[in-house]
Amino acid sequence: xxxxxxxxxxxxxxxxxEIAEQGESFDRVSARLGEDGFARAWSRVGSAxxxxxxxxxxxxxxQMVNDLQSLFDLLEADAHDRGALPDPQYLQTGSTDxxxxxxxxxxxxxxxxxxSDGSQSxxxxxxxxxxxxxxxxxxxxxxxxxETRDLLQHAYAHRTEEAARRVWRAMHSLRSCVPQVAKAVLxxxxxxxxxxx
Length: 197
Known about the structure:
By secondary structure, the chain is an all-alpha fold. It is built from seven helices and no strands. It has a domain at 4-86 and 141-190.
């Protein structure tokens, strides 16, 4: 088979393989490092080995988050192109008009928006919950875990042991949900145009 569908399937497989590979790496390195080693490295008092392992576990975590997000973005864009979901590009502009148009299309697509705040732009995990593939509580957790990824990439202002242990717990909470989230994202590719799952 060739063409757009096989290209899409190839990209899905690549993301799933990367998620699995990085998950296994995260598990191996976490087992070697341990929470105490991570806390020491985070606080700048760890050994050279602990510091190196901390970097490896952080990178694996970042990659899992990045690939989960990319997988969702890929499938959501494909579903929009088929007319099954609203255009996520409306939300990228940050404009009131774009947000309004997204909510209008969501309602027209059969998405239950009755309990939603239409004045807000739903991020990708909130949209996954709105589409009916995860619970809103998990979406809230995913938003927080993604913010942990952003912390690893952009800011080390809080290099305390307490902050290190919060980050460690957040990373492991996401890791435990990775299979569930990947499985929840995949049905988007089969979403029908009338908005039904």
